[in-house]
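=== RUN LOG ===
request id: a7f3
mode: sequence -> structure
chains: 1
length: 189
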Amino acid sequence: MKTLLIIDVQNDFCPRGALAVYDGDKVVPVINQIINKFDLVLASKDWHPEDTIHFENWPVHCVRNTKGAEFHPDLKVDKIDQILLKGTGNRNDGYSAFEATNLYLDKFLKEKGINELYVTGLATDYCVKATAIEASQKGFSTHVITDAIKAVNAQPGDNTRALEEMKKAGCNLMTSKEILLKAKNWGRN
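=== RESULT ===
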């Protein structure tokens, strides 16, 4: 099963959001273009309580049941098979989708016989990186779709460093164009 993992494409990480990633909304059309090529689509959400220690380091964002925590309005949410809620506790950050509290992602993927993940979303240098590296460490063949991710870039060069860290961890970097070409061999045009 070809599995797409969409990381945190939420209003608060898009322009005018509480923790906006520059051009964060630009990942949406790319994700929408490739989403139908996958057998299974999973999407994570930051789902923070109001009183989490996470907000000691970050502006208040993606508080559960708020507009900021909703997926970007243009994302094809009808194609999402499972939502992963992370950062749900008062004392955890929830950077990796493997930290989801409503579904044990590692166990879920293994039970379904999935060994290959394609990762997209926000932000390259935090949640995308944490998820992709953990997936690779857990033995999943992990592909990061570079034109379907955007970085916070709190420090100049964070995006480049994150990509290098993911490559070093065994992740394959590719583009949506490569996915579309590859999908022809999957039998999904």
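=== NOTES ===
The longest strand covers residues 141-150.
The helical segments are 27-34, 105-111, 124-137, 158-168, 176-186.
=== END ===
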